[in-house]
Amino acid sequence: MGGRADLHIHTNHSDGFYSPIRIVEKADEVGLKTISITDHDALSAIPEATEHAKKFGIEVIPGLEISSDIADIEVHILAYFINIHDEELNRYLKFFRDERYHRAERIIRKLNSLGLNIDIADVLNFSGDSAICRPHIAEVLVRKEFVSNYNSAFSKYLGNNAPAYERKVHISPASAFKIIHDAGGIAIIAHPGNLSENLIKDLIYAGVDGFEVIHPSHNEQQYKYYKWLCNAYFLLQSGGSDFHGGKKNDENNLGSYTLNSTSIEEMRKHLIRKGRDSSLI
């Protein structure tokens, strides 16, 4: 399918603002023809988005975002063209979602010790059936008027190194790549701008399929570097808006950070070369 593609979009099934149906409609409004829903540790938005997208002639590539860790640096890995019914993949995702719940409990205990009276039931009112993320806790803090806005919740309590911060449970990049590959997919490093050259080389040697070249956080120099890197190591180039909506204040990003159809076709060819699940191609 031709046209512009955005392969990094989140829904309210993780830490995004909009429903899968509304995401598809917004994608159509900005002229996208291919999208990927890449919720954190969750696949539940994909069937709904895929079905609704048929009305608009939009292709939805099954996607996912997984957190990993290398040398104490958090690395986010995007998965594309995965079989969302793969048993091993879903077993790992259940583990990650359970760990997110326990992490939320630890954050809440820290907030309680700081005099902020919230409990897990408050958070579940916002997260619903989606994987619990820090933005859900931030929403509770705003609603209970412990902070004035979403950004303050992170700067005062929830952000990295803030008083109530808790690390997520991570797996190694190599383990994440294997999970993704075994589910028939492609593994791409998301927004790699904070990674050193040595770490990038480690990820290449560990078996990553490519890097996100286009991302709102990348400047022109970074864009050129990651494009060169992918060409030099015969890796796939990906990109997207990392769109969340709502309090992220990124409404203008959707449709502004896109790939062309050639990049999508390179991904399909890569899957064929690697002998992964051709039923998804």
- Order of the strands making up the biggest sheet: 1-2-3-4-5-6-7
How helical, in percent, are the residues?
Answer: 40-55%
Q: For the record, what CATH class applies? A: Alpha Beta
Total individual domains: 1
What's the number of extended β-strand segments? 7
Helix-strand sequence: EHEHEEHHHHHEHEHEH
The CATH architecture would be: Alpha-Beta Barrel
The computed structural class is alpha/beta
Characterize the structure shown.
The structure is a single chain. This protein is an alpha/beta fold and 281 residues long. The protein has one domain: Metal-dependent hydrolases (TIM Barrel, Alpha-Beta Barrel), CATH 3.20.20. The chain has helices at residues 20-29, 45-53, 87-113, 120-127, 134-143, 150-158, 173-182, 197-205, 220-232, 261-274; strands at 4-9, 32-37, 59-70, 73-80, 186-189, 210-214, 236-239. It has a seven-stranded mixed beta sheet, with helices on both faces. α1 crosses α2 and α5 (134-143) crosses α6 (150-158). It is globular and about 55 Å long. The termini are close together. The mean pLDDT is 93.
Put the structure in a nutshell.
The protein has 281 residues and is of the alpha/beta class. Helix content is 42%, strand content 16%.
List keywords for this structure.
alpha/beta; 42% helix; 7-stranded mixed beta sheet; globular; 7 strands; 10 helices; single chain; 281 residues; TIM Barrel
Give a topology summary.
Blueprint: E1 4-9, H1 20-29, E2 32-37, H2 45-53, E3 59-70, E4 73-80, H3 87-113, H4 120-127, H5 134-143, H6 150-158, H7 173-182, E5 186-189, H8 197-205, E6 210-214, H9 220-232, E7 236-239, H10 261-274
Parallel strand pairs: 1-2, 2-3, 5-6, 6-7
Antiparallel strand pairs: 3-4, 4-5
Helix pairs in contact: 1-2, 4-5, 5-6
